[in-house]
Amino acid sequence: MRAKAGIATLVVVLIAAPFVAIQEGVVLRTYSDPIGIPTACGGETDKAITIRKRFTRDECISIMGASLYQHALELDRCIFVPLKENEAAAVLSWGYNVGTGAACASTLVRKLNAGQPASVWCAELTRWNRAGGRVLPGLVKRRAAERQMCEGK
Asked: Which residues are part of the catalytic machinery?
């Protein structure tokens, strides 16, 4: 039996936050990501923060925590089945990276909501390894790590 755990729980956000920080890296200034999108802190692409040039570590932690929670709330609107905490944290990391619109419209979420086993829908994570139409080694590595988390390994 699965534990009832939505994406937007404090525990899930707390599990996902250090994982996301490691995967994204924390950069205390605005920079261009591998496909040229202005980015800051732990992968933030929000237009409001790309105007600023420098951030403190505390600002980046605060921004990422708030952003992860917002992403979690948005994912909760399209995921209708209970998840284990590790599954929810992996989905949150992925949804934070690809955007909740893409996540909610994905085959992964369709399979998840259809009640397919985690071994089936967690495998979908590895398909999300492209940005700007090309496979990025960093995304291959990240998706493998998210899949391991999702599968409880």
From this structure: 24, 33
